[in-house]
Amino acid sequence: MTDGLLPLLVAVPVLAAVVPPLLSLRTTGTGWYVAAVACAVEAALAALVVRSVFLGGAVRHVVGGYERPYGIELVVDGLSAPVVALVAVVSLGVLAFAYTAGPRRNSFYSAYLLLVGGLMGVSVTGDLFNMFVFLEITGLATYALVAADRSGRSAVAALKYLILGTTGASLFLIGVGYAFVETGTLNMVDLSERLAGSYGDRAVLASFGFILVGLGLKTAVFPLHTWQPDAYSYAPDTVTTFISALVSTVAAYAIGRIVLTVFTPAFFEAVPAARAAVLAFAAVSILAGSALAAVQTDIKRMLAYSSVSQFGLVIAGFALVTPDAVLGAVVHLVGHGLMKGGLFAAAGVMAARHGARTVGDYARLGYRSPVVAGAVGILGVVLVGIPPSVGFLGKWYIAVGAVRAGAWPIAVVVFLSTLLTLSYVARLLERLYFAGPTEPTDPAVGAGTDAGTGTGADADAEVGARDPDPVADGGARADSRAPAAVSTGMVAVIVAAAVVVVALGFAAAPFEAFLERFLGGVFA
Amino acid sequence: MIDLLASRWAYVAFVVLMIVGLYMMIASPNLVKKIIGLNVFQSAVFLFFVAAAYVAGGAPPVVPSDGGGGPYASPLPHVIVLTAIVVGVSLTAVALALVVRIHEEYGTVDEAVLEEVADD
Predict the structure, then answer these.
(1) How high is the pLDDT of residue A439?
(2) How far is B19 from chain A (nearest CA, A)?
(3) Could A159 and B99 be called an inter-chain contact, meaning their C-beta atoms sit closer than 8 Å?
(4) Rounded mean pLDDT of A142-167?
(5) Do A153 and B118 touch (CB under 8 A)?
(6) Which of A101, A192, A185, A195 is closest to A149 using CA atoms?
(7) Residue numbers in A near B74 (CB within 8 A)
(8) Helix (H) or strand (E) segment spanning residue A74
């Protein structure tokens, strides 16, 4: 019954994206309400689909009645159900955050809904070329959103992202082309059947390489990450919250889907070098990302490099292709999305309230914004992977999977990255709570730091004083990236993220239930 | 080598175009030329699909009701290329819009100059 809902998951946001520009003919500022209705409907649809997957296994829909291998198939199974749920929940949460934080232009919500549609499309499609199209829809909407504050710097970051992202998608398309030439089909299940037995062929190897490098660029795995810190740090805070939680996440999901469903574990058995290459790629990313994050002073950049490392972990989990490691990768994928979303949202609130953009600026903010700082503390500790939390669960399963697969170096790398993560999270927490009271971080605003009470006017004055180039952004406000104001609702969203990542630490059983059937098919 | 050029020249052209496009994206400091490079790169991918779909003497796949009449060219790669062209056009539009914004803000489309200006 629920299979009819799958096309709606994609169609509802994409069709709703047309409405805000039409409303612009008459009104402004109504786009948010359209997005709210669409995202609420989307969440309800996602809940129904995920429930049905939980109870009865994979849900399939054949678009237009053309059976595979000719038509396009939409599938939600144990691997994609958590991602579908994540997209639905985060898009609602960020929308709630954006109500006060802005931007409130209608066109912003058009791109927002397009992005939701693209992300859902990548998550539910069972067809390789269809996946390329949805990746590009996701990309297009993301480029537009990164530049949404209309500043010069964000436009440069968006263009850089566009050029690298499109190159990545084109490389993916070349890989799809090789697979198509080899087998004559694009359906993932059909492809996996026809690829069996020809794993050693040069065309198949080239296809795997191109697809992996292309998606690696989209996921921002070291050394293909160069677009990501700029895009994350120069985008408006609302947008960073959204894209850091979902865009790379869905690209990493695509890697998992292609490794597990299209090429299958048998490919890695036949070609051990491919597995070794992916694992090496992931391990380097884990270490380099953590190390680069540890030396950053800008909060958003630090969190961005941390994502490079975390996605390395996820890809390592998928490439280990043991049941434990894949479970860990999916848990970490979902957990990381929630953690990073929460942390970037908190970074936005701190910037709006206190003008704090660097680790030094966070000195003693734990006493001035106790709730948000507390949430940052929890989210940071979860990012390190301290139990009970989703961060611990993901890393634990990946490490156990690595040990069981005999890939000891990966287990060591996971441990090392945890230490490096601890180093930058601890630095942040030390500033938040233990910075000396008489230690002004910036002489120009020392007085303001003590007098500020976090009201809107004070915060704005501080932003002006702290920002080294208040006019360069060309916006009406000094910091065009920061939220316009801070409401209780925004703080509530951050606290909710912190609560959920801790609560999910106890949710190993549902994740296992989702993956059991899927993994049963993969490792049969 | 000569044999490869004679029989598989379309694939050779695909590789050459791809490398030219990549080189333009990396080496040219001009943002507009980078976007042209991106377009060349994408065109290379289109050429790859079209070349792979070529069937000597293949007819358009309009099959008469009594069947037969082959060989036919596979319509799928052509449809893929059509879709990819549409995607490429919209990406180019967004890219050029961003370049216009950058030019308004900084008065240059040169990457080297841009780095100097943006750091101030």
Answers:
(1) 53
(2) 12
(3) yes
(4) 90
(5) yes
(6) A101
(7) 184
(8) strand A73-76
* Pairing verdict, β A73-76 and A59-62: antiparallel
Domains contained in chain B, CATH given:
2-56+72-119 (1.10.287.3510)
Structural domain boundaries in chain A? 2-462+480-522
Pick the residue with more confidence: A69 or B119? A69
A139 to chain B, any CB pair closer than 8 A? The answer is yes
Q: What is the mean pLDDT of residues A186-197?
A: 87
Residues near A228 by beta carbon (within 8 Å), at least 6 away in sequence:
A161, A220, A248, A304, A307, A308
- pLDDT value at residue A483: 85
Phi then psi dihedrals of residue B110, to 5 deg: -95, 125
Tell me if A163 and B34 make a contact (CB, 8 A cut-off). yes
Mutate to test the interface with B, among A115, A130, A159 (most CBs of B within 10 A): A159
Average pLDDT of span A361-374: 87
Report how far residue A8's alpha carbon sits from residue A42's, in angstroms, rounded to the nearest whole number. Answer: 8
Residue at token pair 């070609």: A271
Residue of B nearest to A146 (CA): B98
Higher pLDDT, A454 or A77: A77
Residue carrying the six token digits 């998992």? A256
Q: For B28-84, how does the pLDDT look when each residue is reduced to its tens digit (9 = 90+)?
A: 999 999 999 999 999 999 999 998 888 888 888 888 888 777 788 888 888 899 999
CB B40 within 8 A of CB B26: no
Interface of A with B in 41-80 (CB under 8 A): none
Q: Are A324 and A265 in contact (CB under 8 A)?
A: no
Partner residues linked to A75 by β-bridges: A60
Residue A409, Cβ neighbours under 10 Å: how many? 11
**Does B83 contact A151 at a Cβ distance shorter than 8 Å?**
no
Nearest to A156 among B74, B84, B118 (CB): B118
Alpha carbon of B98: minimum distance to chain A alpha carbons (Å): 6
Contacts of A287 (CB under 8 A, 6+ apart): A309, A312, A413, A416, A417, A420
| Residue A73 parent element (H or E) | strand A73-76
Report the residue from B42, B83, B101 with minimal CB separation from A170: B42
Distance from CA of A423 to the nearest CA of B (A): 29
Tell me if A224 sits within 8 A of A299, measured CB to CB: no
Q: Which residue of B has its CA nearest to A136?
A: B87
CA dist A37 → A20, A32, A141, B88 (Å): 12, 9, 19, 31
The mean-pLDDT minimum among A229-238, A245-254, A307-316, B111-120 falls in B111-120
Instruction: Name which of A10-19, A20-29, A488-497 the model is least confident about.
Output: A20-29
User: The complex's ipTM?
Assistant: 0.94
CB A382 within 8 A of CB A501: yes
